[in-house]
Amino acid sequence: MNCNILEYAKENKLLAQTAVKNEEFLDFFGKFPIKTIVEIGTHKGLSSAYMAQFAKKIFTFDVKDYGKKYKVWSDFKVEEKIHYFTVSGREEISKILKDIKFDFCFIDGLHKYEEVKADFEMVKNCGKVLFHDSAKRKAYGVRKFVDEIGAVITGNVAYWNI
Fold first, then answer.
1. What is the rounded distance in angstroms from the CA atom of residue 21 to the CA atom of residue 44?
2. Cβ neighbours of residue 8 under 8 Å, at least 6 residues apart?
3. Which of 115, 127, 137 is CA-nearest to residue 161?
4. Sequence-ordered alpha helix ranges (H) in 98-141
5. How far apart are CA 101 and CA 103, in angstroms?
6. What is the DSSP string of 91-107?
7. Domain boundaries, the chain
């Protein structure tokens, strides 16, 4: 169903603020094996649903529980692969991550430089990190941070690996 995620987002008016509207995000997956993904910034769950097609498990975190994601995951039949946590902040995520072995992280949380940097520091040991919203935008610090760490930028995503 991966080729239909964009169509699904359009039909269900879920296209705003999602990585699945970026072709470079959709094209990224399936090129190398991923077992367990950590996602920071769940929002409506579209990126989780898409990535679940390429991984065994996803642990996804957000500070707000947007109800629409549960229908998305059910419609894509991936809800059993996804473990969602509503958290109060990064400290809570760090605590949960101590018990999770993961080999990939997708960061799409807060976009200010210090927030992106703190998210990265928390997950970089997995060795592979994909960032959303890396296109140049004045209010976002994502681009500045991914430039600093030497991530490869393709459109609106940036990929860093050890």
1. 13
2. 14, 46, 72, 75, 76
3. 127
4. 113-123
5. 7
6. HHHHHHHTT---SEEEE
7. 2-161
What mean pLDDT value characterizes the chain? 94
Separation of alpha carbons 22 and 32, rounded Å: 19
Q: Can you tell me the distance from the alpha carbon of 32 to that of 46, in angstroms, rounded to the nearest whole number?
A: 21
Enumerate residues 6+ apart whose C-beta is below 8 A from 76.
1, 5, 8, 49, 52, 53
Task: Determine whether 89 is exposed, middle or buried from the number of CB atoms within 10 Å of its CB (0-12, 13-18, 19+).
Answer: exposed
Short-list 50, 54, 53, CA closest to 23: 50
- Please report, for residues 65, 86, 88, 95, the alpha-carbon distance to residue 3 in angstroms, rounded to integers and kept in the order given: 26, 29, 34, 35
Q: Provide the residue count of the chain.
A: 162
Instruction: Write out pLDDT tens, residues 44-90.
Output: 999 999 999 999 999 999 999 999 999 999 999 999 999 999 999 99
Listed in sequence order, the residues at least 6 apart from 24 whose beta carbon sits closer than 8 Å to its beta carbon are 154, 155, 156, 157
CATH architecture of 2-161: 3-Layer(aba) Sandwich (3.40)
* Contact call for residues 133 and 25 (beta carbons, < 8 A): no
